[in-house]
Amino acid sequence: MTDRTESIRREMTRNINAVEGSREYLEAKHGQVWDTTELQQEFEVLGFCSPCCIVRCRSNSQKGTVFFQHSPRFYFGFEPE
């Protein structure tokens, strides 16, 4: 079975990981940023396919998507469903 999104996802992952990845940089560009522990406290991770995670907010059950970079691992850019 062919994944038609694979080339798009690979390009997005390359772009995300090609720029400075400090927490400060990501906060300035995307707003709120979570490390892995913070993400697990605020969201339930329902699934992932790099560079995205499908999550559900623990406080209000809102589903949505966050992006992540690999190193250092930070999550950012929450988009409600």
Automatic annotation (TrEMBL):
Name of the protein this chain belongs to:
Uncharacterized protein
Q: What is the lineage of its organism?
A: Bacteria, Pseudomonadati, Planctomycetota, Planctomycetia, Planctomycetales
